[in-house]
Amino acid sequence: MSSLRVAFFSVVAITLVLxxxxxxxxxxxxxxxxxxxxHALFDIDxxxxxxxxxVNATIGYHDAKAGYYLAVGVFDLEDGNLVEGLGSSNPQxxxxxxxxxxxxxxxxxxxxxxxxxxxxxxxxxxxxxxxxAALLDNAKDPISNSFSDYxxxxxxxxxxxxxVDVPQNxxxxxxxxxxxxxSLELVxxxxxxxxxxxxxxxxxxxxxxxxxxxxxxxTAPNRSVALNYDITLTGSYVVQYRLDIISPVIVGGAGWxxxxxxxxxxxxxxxxxxGGILGVLRGKWIFxxxxxxxxxxxxxxxxxVTMHSAQVxxxxxxxxxxxxxxxxxxxxxxxxxxxxxxxxxxKKRIGRSSRRKARSQSRANSRIxx
Length: 370
Known about the structure:
alpha+beta
């Protein structure tokens, strides 16, 4: 650092240590339009802040003389030292460049302003800072009544990397913020963070993913993690396929199964009653076997299916209507006989019947008179 900078910034440091009066406006400099990074993470691996810590300000000066300098820097209020970084100025460039967040600009006008930017490096925790401006005379001595300052605080936390590895179809949520899907790498402050992944992820109607566990042994899909160092977590998923069973008789076994699992299928008995009126009449189904598409799997009441993909299994049954048909035949015969008998009976004649009744009544009356 040049002797000019040493002189200025030494005086500034002493002023910051002894004078506890922030935001004092000097007579010949002003600090306006200040903006700065309020929160940042410091990546200990790369030794860089994320995002970059930038301080912007417009520095005005008045009553300057030829050969004067405008000196501006960012200081740590705890130790009074100029912080590490880099400064720039516009329209007049800095006449010095070093690893400190300071800038000295030669000025030729009596009054004017410079737009300055400082990039700060090697931050620490809660950082109490002051942006200080002053004029230096042509003898390179600070003009004491030209000092002005602006105090501010930047919160810097240690940055750590959280990597979450999951299949591409899986959306990861960290601290309530959803990712676009698949693995992600985040730079986060040290401390506790929440990670959430879905327990089930549908690929299509017959294929899905089922969460198993995390690489550290946690079995819950939603969990918290203490980020005290860089961490990589892998979420394990297993592929599941849908098994559908088509049968006129209820047969168990349909559902979702992990890829590669062998499923045991069976029927309780090889004959099953039909439903509805046919079942009441003792109609039944007779088991014939199992088939997948046009291919027969087995004719045994028990079979096994390995889930290498989604599958549809048909249970083959033959209807047995022999008993209902026999009952229907008997009913039909009885009905036909009843109809036949009814039709064969002679019809009654009303005239003859009346005369018979009259003769019978006359005979009865004669017996009574005798």
